[in-house]
UniProtKB/TrEMBL annotation:
GO MF term list: helicase activity
Top-level taxon of origin: Bacteria
Organism of this sequence: Thalassolituus maritimus
InterPro entries (alphabetical): AAA+_ATPase, DNA2/NAM7-like, DNA2/NAM7-like_C, DNA2/NAM7_AAA_11, P-loop_NTPase, SF1_C_Upf1
PANTHER family per record: DNA2/NAM7 HELICASE FAMILY, HELICASE SENATAXIN ISOFORM X1-RELATED
The protein's name: AAA domain-containing protein
Lineage: Bacteria, Pseudomonadati, Pseudomonadota, Gammaproteobacteria, Oceanospirillales
SMART domains: AAA (SM00382)
AAA+ ATPase domain ranges (all copies): 422-886
Length: 1100
C-alpha cells in the first residue's frame, strides 16, 4: 500500500521549516512517509536518505514528534518548509506476521472481481498491495490491538479492512469488508508480513498420521491386503489353466455370435480337467468364465513374467464368454468382432487387472493426499480434519422442494442441508422407503443452483453406485435444469438392454410435448400450409419426373396464393419474380419432356417453320399444318402454352382472322421459345434430371422468408420454436442426445467405471488420476466394497455424499480370499469381523464419535417411511432398527393408502402360509437349497394375485438360487415365465403393469434391494427342528441365511400392501433367547408370526 492512499491521516497540517535554506532543494516526495524525531528539543525530518533540521512553529508538532510512535507523511512541499500530516499510532509492535489465507477468502476476492483466478498467489499479491506498507520499515496498520483482545487484529488498507484472528498460534484472515470512515485509533505491526496458504489442503499437508494409532488404518490396510490376495488368486488361476492354441475357427450357425474353436480332443479334455481342478480347489468360480482370444499367448503365460497389457498395436482385447467345451472344440460367444483364423485362447484376467489397478490408484492417491480432497485421508484414518470455511447454503429452494413427492420431512430437509453444507463427507442413512432417492435429486438441484456464475457446471456431479442396476435406478430420476443425467459406461460385452437416461428423456419429451402441440398446430392453418410448402419444395428438389415437377410447381403456387390472400403472408418482390421464372421454365419443360424419335421429329418440324414472308407465302401454312397434325398425336404437348399458341395461329391463318404478318411474328416467337426449351441438357447424367442449384437457392429463399414471417408473429413465433424443437427431438436424435450429453451436469457410472476410459473421454483429461468432480454422490454406498468405494471418493473436490443403509444388504466377500488370508495368518477373529463391516458403516461409527468430540455433523438418518402399511413399517422399525439402537422409523402415510381387496387376503397386511415339514423339507442342490412344496405354493399364490388383480405388482423373494429356479419352473407351468438362451425371464403378459411399472419379479434378496411391489411373497426354504443345538454353529448350520438380520430386513421391507411368508410355521418357535451380540437367534420371523396372529394378519 502506498501511504498517500491511506485516508485516515489527520487533516490538520503541521508546518516544519528548514533551518538550512538548501534543505528545501533536496528530493522530498509528497504523499510518502517521513520520520519526524524530537531529540532533546531538536527536530529532525528524514525521508529515505534525505534528512534536515527543522523547527516547528506549533508546539503541538514537537509534542507529537516526541512520542515516536506516530506516522508522518508529506502533504505539500515548499522551498523553505514542509507541510506534514500525521496518523496517530498508539503503539508499535515489532514482530513477524504470517497471515493464513483460506479458500473462503480467496473465493470472496474472486467473486468481487479483485483477482482474476482463485489462487493463493493472486490473493497474496492483492492483500499485500492493499494492506502492507513498504518503506524504511515494513508494517501493517491495525485499528485495534489491545491486551484485552490480543487475539484479534483489524487491518486497515486503502479501501478495505481485514479481520485477523489468532488460532493455534497462527493469524488467520477471517473477514474482508469495506473500510469504515469512523476509524478508531491505530496500532502498527512492524516487521516482515507474509500472506500464506491457509487452505485445508495446505494444513493437511503438514500433518503426520500414524495409521497404527487408530483402528481405521488397520481397516483400510486389511482391505488392501484383501484386494492383493484377490488379484493374486486370479493370476494364479489363469496360469494354472494356461493357454490353448486353436488351428481353425468357425461360426456355429446359431442366431447368436457363437464360434467353435478347434483345439484338438486331447487339449479340450485337458482344459476340462484343469477347470475342474481349480473349481474343486475353490480357486476359481467357473460358472461364468471369460476367455481371451489372441494371435499368440501373452508373455506372462509363456515366461512367467508380471501381468502386462495384452492388447497389441492399439487393438482392444477380444473376449469370449458363455464357454462350452465339446471336445475337440471350445465354443464361446464373441460380440466384438470376428476372431482371427488361428490363435490361442486363455483365461481372461483383464477385468481383474483393471479393477485392481483402479482400486490401488485410488487408495494410493488418498494415502498420498494427492486427490482433490486431501483431508479425506485424515477422515478415513478416524481423525477430524481441518474444516474449510464456507458460506452456509440454504437447504431447500422452491425448485428443490418439487423434487419431493410431498412436503419433505424434517429429516429429509436435514439430510439435504448436511449433504449440501458438509465440509467434506456426509452420510445419509436411508432405511426402506424413506425417500433417499428424493433426497439425492433435491441435493443435485441445490448443488446446481449454487454453482457460481463463473463456474462450469457441466459434468461436475458424479452419481455412482456399486453396480449398474443401482446406478440406472437413481440416474433415471436425476438431472437438473431440465436436462437428464448421463450414464457413462455399460455392462461388460455390451449386454445392456436398458435405455440410456438421455434417450429416455428425449422420448419422454416427445410424448409430453407432441399431443398438445399438434392440437395447437391444427388450430393454426398457416402451419399446415407452411409444412405443405416445405414438403413440396423438398420433393421438387429431388424429383426426376417432369410430370411430378409440374404438379409440385402448381402445389407451391397454390400454397403461396393461400398464404398471401388468406393470411397476408407474401414473398418479397425479388423472390416472387425469381419464383415466377422457375414456374414458367419448369411448367414448359415438363410438358415437352418427350424422348426418342418423337423428340427428334418435333425439333425437325419446329426448325422447318417459315418465319420470313417470302418463304411463308410459299409453304408456310403447309409446314404449320404438319406441326399441328403431329401435336395432335402427342397428348402431353397439348399442355404447353407455346405449342397450343401455334395451333391457334393455324386456325386464325386459315380463317384469315389475323394478318399474315402477325401470324409470321407469333410463329417465330413460339418457335424460338420451344427450341430453347427442347435444347439438350449437357449436365452429367446424375444431375440432368434435377433442378439447378440456382433454382434450389430460390426455394431456400422462399422458405427463409416464410419462416421469418412466422417467427415475427407473437402467436405463431412461439409455436414455430416449439415445433422445431419437437422436430429436432424426433428427427435428429443422435445430435440432440450428443448435445444433451455434452452439457449435462450429472454424470452416472458405477464405482469402477467412474475411472474408466469412457469417463476419461467425457472429462477430457489425460488419465484417470486427473478425473475430478465438484461433488460425488454414492447411492447404496453400504453395498460397495471399501476399495471400490474409494475410487469415486478419490475424485471429489468439494463434497462426498454417501447414501445407504448398513442395516440392509452388505458388500460381498469372497470366501476363498478370506481362507487364504487365514492360512497366511493375516486374518484373526478381529480382522475377520472388520472385513464384514462396510466402509459406510465404518465411517458411520467414526463420524458419530467425531461429532461427540465437537466435530461437525456429518450423519443424518431418515426416519419416516412412505413405502408400506404403517403397521408393517412399525414391525420393520422395531425388529431391524430400534433393536439395534437406531431411531424409530415412523410412517408418513395413513393406513387407508394401502387398502386392498385381494381375494383371500381381505383386511390382511401380513400372512403366514404354513408349509409343514411333512410336505417335504429343504434339499441341497448344486451348493444351494430348495423346497419344492414352497415353490409350488409361491407360484400358485403369485399367479392368483396376478390373474385376479392385474393392476397390482408382485415380488417373489427367496434366499437361495435353487429355490428361485424352482419357483420359475412352477410359474412357467402357469404361463407366467419362460426359459430362453439367456435364462429365465417373465412372460410378456406379466412384465409390466398398465402404468409401465414392473409387474412381476422373482429372485434372491440381492435382486430386490431398492425395489418395491404391492405384494411380496417370501419363500423361507429352511425348516425348524426342535432338537437343533442352540449354539452359533448349530443355528447357522440349520438356519443359514435366516440368521442374517440385514438380509431379512431387505426381504421383509419390499412390500407396500401385503407381505406373505411361505414356509414352516415351526420357525416361530425358535427360542427367543438372545445371542451373545444381543440379537435374536432368528431375526424377524417370530415377530412377524405374532403380527399375523393379530388383527392385521392371518395364518393358514
Amino acid at each position: 500500500m502506498n501511504l498517500k492512499d491511506f485516508r485516515f491521516f489527520d487533516k490538520r497540517l503541521h508546518c516544519v521549516r528548514f533551518i538550512d535554506s538548501d534543505a528545501g532543494k533536496q528530493s522530498w516526495h509528497s504523499g510518502e512517509e517521513v520520520r519526524l524525531v524530537n531529540e532533546g528539543g531538536t527536530l529532525v525530518v528524514a525521508q529515505g536518505d534525505v534528512a534536515a533540521l527543522v523547527e516547528a512553529p506549533d508546539k503541538t508538532t514537537s509534542h507529537l514528534a516526541s512520542a515516536g510512535t506516530d506516522i508522518w507523511r508529506v502533504a505539500h512541499k515548499a522551498n523553505d518548509h514542509l507541510q506534514l500530516e500525521v496518523l496517530s499510532v498508539q503503539r508499535r509492535i515489532h514482530t513477524k506476521l504470517s497471515i493464513a489465507v483460506d479458500s473462503y477468502l480467496i473465493a470472496q476476492l474472486s467473486d468481487d472481481d479483485l483477482i482474476d483466478a482463485k489462487s493463493i498467489d493472486q490473493a497474496s499479491e492483492w492483500l499485500s498491495d492493499e494492506f502492507v506498507v513498504n518503506g524504511a520499515q515494513t508494517y501493517v496498520l491495525s485499528q485495534s490491538f489491545s491486551n484485552d483482545n490480543e487475539h484479534v487484529l483489524n487491518l486497515a488498507g486503502r479501501r478495505y479492512a481485514l479481520t485477523l484472528r489468532k488460532e493455534n498460534n497462527i493469524w488467520v484472515a477471517k473477514r474482508l469488508t469495506r473500510l469504515r470512515h469512523d476509524a478508531a485509533s491505530f496500532s502498527a505491526v512492524v516487521g516482515d508480513v507474509a500472506f500464506i496458504d491457509g487452505s485445508v489442503a495446505a494444513q493437511v499437508s503438514t500433518w503426520e498420521i500414524d495409521p497404527l494409532d487408530n483402528g481405521t488404518g488397520s481397516y483400510l490396510s486389511l482391505w488392501e491386503q484383501y484386494s492383493d490376495v484377490q488379484w493374486q488368486q486370479a493370476t494364479r488361476a489363469a496360469k494354472k489353466i494356461g493357454y490353448f492354441p486353436y488351428i481353425r475357427q468357425e461360426h456355429t450357425g446359431s442366431e447368436k455370435s457363437r464360434f467353435r474353436f478347434d483345439i484338438g480332443k486331447d487339449l479340450a479334455e485337458e482344459l476340462q480337467k484343469r477347470l475342474g481342478e481349480v473349481r474343486e480347489s475353490g480357486e476359481l468360480d467357473t460358472s461364468d468364465l471369460t476367455f481371451e482370444i489372441a494371435e499368440e499367448p501373452p508373455e506372462w503365460l509363456v515366461e512367467g513374467s508380471v501381468i502386462a497389457d495384452n492388447s497389441r498395436a492399439g487393438k482392444p482385447p477380444l473376449f469370449g464368454r458363455n464357454v462350452r467345451i465339446i471336445p475337440p472344440y471350445i465354443e464361446v460367444e464373441v460380440t466384438q468382432r470376428r476372431p482371427q483364423r488361428k490363435g490361442v485362447l486363455f483365461l481372461s484376467i483383464q477385468g481383474d487387472k483393471t479393477a485392481h489397478e483402479r482400486r490401488r490408484g485410488a487408495y494410493t492417491s488418498i494415502r498420498a493426499r494427492s486427490n482433490p480432497m486431501p483431508q479425506l485421508s485424515m477422515l478415513l484414518e478416524g481423525i477430524d480434519s481441518p474444516v474449510e470455511r464456507r458460506r452456509t447454503l440454504r437447504a431447500l429452494t422452491a425448485t428443490a422442494r418439487k423434487r419431493f413427492k410431498g412436503e419433505p420431512t424434517p429429516r429429509q430437509k436435514e439430510a439435504v442441508d448436511v449433504g449440501l453444507n458438509t465440509p467434506d463427507v456426509a452420510l445419509v442413512v436411508g432405511p426402506p422407503g424413506t425417500g433417499k432417492t428424493q433426497v439425492i435429486t433435491a441435493l443435485q438441484q441445490r448443488i446446481a443452483e449454487e454453482f457460481s456464475r463463473d463456474s462450469e457446471i457441466t459434468h461436475q456431479v458424479l452419481l455412482t453406485s456399486f453396480q449398474h442396476d443401482a446406478v440406472d435406478n437413481v440416474v433415471e430420476r436425476s438431472g437438473v435444469f431440465g436436462l437428464p443425467a448421463v450414464k457413462v459406461g455399460g455392462r461388460r460385452f455390451g449386454v445392456d438392454g436398458s435405455v440410456s437416461p438421455v434417450t429416455h428423456w428425449r422420448l419422454n419429451k416427445i410424448r409430453t410435448l407432441k399431443p398438445e402441440l399438434e392440437k395447437e398446430l391444427n388450430a393454426e392453418p398457416v402451419f399446415g400450409l407452411y409444412q405443405a410448402l416445405k414438403n413440396s419444395c423438398l420433393n421438387l428438389r429431388i424429383s426426376r419426373q417432369s410430370s411430378q415437377r409440374n404438379q409440385l410447381v402448381k402445389d407451391i403456387d397454390g400454397v403461396l396464393d393461400k398464404l398471401s390472400t388468406e393470411h397476408g403472408i407474401s414473398l418479397s418482390q425479388s423472390t416472387t419474380d425469381n419464383w415466377y421464372d422457375i414456374n414458367q421454365r419448369l411448367s414448359i419443360s415438363s410438358s415437352l419432356s418427350i424422348a426418342g424419335e418423337d423428340h427428334k421429329h418435333l425439333l425437325r418440324l419446329l426448325r422447318g417453320l417459315r418465319t420470313l414472308e417470302v418463304s411463308f407465302n410459299d409453304d408456310g401454312l403447309s409446314r404449320l399444318n404438319d406441326l399441328c397434325e403431329f401435336i395432335s398425336t402427342i397428348p402431353e404437348l397439348a399442355q404447353d402454352e407455346a405449342v397450343m399458341s401455334l395451333v391457334d395461329l393455324r386456325v386464325a391463318a386459315e380463317s384469315s382472322a389475323v394478318s399474315i404478318a402477325e401470324v409470321i411474328l407469333k410463329t417465330a416467337e413460339a418457335r424460338d421459345t420451344l427450341l430453347d426449351t427442347l435444347r439438350p441438357d449437357y449436365r452429367p447424367y446424375l444431375l440432368r434430371s434435377y433442378i439447378s442449384e440456382s433454382d434450389c437457392k430460390v426455394l431456400d429463399q422462399i422458405e427463409t422468408e416464410l419462416y421469418a414471417s412466422l417467427a415475427q408473429s407473437r402467436t405463431l413465433g412461439p409455436l414455430l420454436v416449439r415445433y422445431e424443437y419437437l422436430t429436432a427431438l424426433e428427427e435428429r436424435k443422435d445430435d440432440v442426445e450428443r448435445s444433451v450429453g455434452d452439457y449435462a451436469a450429472i454424470v452416472g457410472a458405477t464405482c469402477q467405471q467412474a475411472a474408466g476410459e469412457q469417463m476419461i473421454g467425457v472429462k477430457e483429461v489425460s488419465d484417470r488420476l486427473n478425473i475430478s468432480f465438484d461433488t460425488v454422490i454414492v447411492d447404496e454406498a453400504a453395498r460397495a466394497a471399501p476399495l471400490d468405494l474409494l475410487i469415486p471418493m478419490s475424485m471429489a473436490s468439494r463434497r462426498i455424499v454417501l447414501v445407504g443403509d448398513h442395516l440392509q444388504l452388505p458388500h460381498m466377500l469372497e470366501p476363498r480370499v478370506e481362507t487364504e488370508l487365514q492360512e497366511r495368518h493375516e486374518l484373526d477373529t478381529v480382522k475377520s469381523e472388520l472385513l464384514k463391516i462396510s466402509l459406510f458403516e465404518h465411517l458411520h461409527r467414526t463420524f458419530k464419535e467425531l461429532h461427540k468430540a465437537g466435530g461437525p455433523q456429518r450423519v443424518v438418518m431418515l426416519d419416516t417411511q412412505f413405502r408400506m402399511h404403517p403397521e408393517l413399517g412399525r414391525f420393520v422399525s422395531r425388529e431391524f432398527y430400534e433393536r439395534r439402537g437406531f431411531d424409530p422409523i415412523s410412517s408418513g402415510l395413513p393406513e387407508s393408502v394401502f387398502h386392498h381387496d385381494i381375494e383371500a387376503y381381505e383386511g390382511c397386511i401380513a400372512t403366514w402360509l404354513d408349509i409343514p415339514k411333512h410336505e417335504g423339507v429343504e434339499k441341497s442342490s448344486n451348493g444351494s437349497r430348495k423346497r419344492l412344496a414352497e415353490a409350488k405354493r409361491c407360484a400358485k399364490e403369485a399367479h392368483e394375485v396376478l390373474t385376479k388383480r392385474p393392476d397390482l405388482s408382485v415380488g417373489v423373494i427367496t434366499f437361495y438360487s435353487a429355490q428361485r429356479d424352482a419357483i420359475y419352473e412352477e410359474l412357467a407351468s402357469l404361463g407366467c415365465a419362460e426359459k430362453t438362451e439367456e435364462g429365465w425371464q417373465i412372460s410378456s403378459g406379466y412384465r409390466t403393469t398398465s402404468e409401465g411399472e414392473e409387474r412381476l419379479r422373482v429372485g434372491s434378496v440381492d435382486a430386490f434391494q431398492g425395489k418395491e411391489f404391492d405384494v411380496v411373497i417370501l419363500s423361507v426354504v429352511r425348516t425348524w427342528n426342535s432338537r437343533t443345538e442352540l449354539t452359533a454353529e448349530g443355528l447357522n448350520q440349520k438356519l443359514g441365511f435366516l440368521r442374517i438380520p440385514n438380509r431379512i430386513n431387505v426381504a421383509m421391507s419390499r412390500q407396500k400392501k401385503l407381505l406373505i411368508v411361505v414356509g414352516d410355521a415351526e420357525l416361530s418357535s425358535v427360542p427367543a433367547t438372545e445371542a451373545d451380540d444381543g440379537q435374536p437367534m432368528l431375526p424377524g420371523f417370530a415377530e412377524f408370526y405374532e403380527l399375523c396372529r393379530g388383527k392385521y394378519g392371518q395364518i393358514r
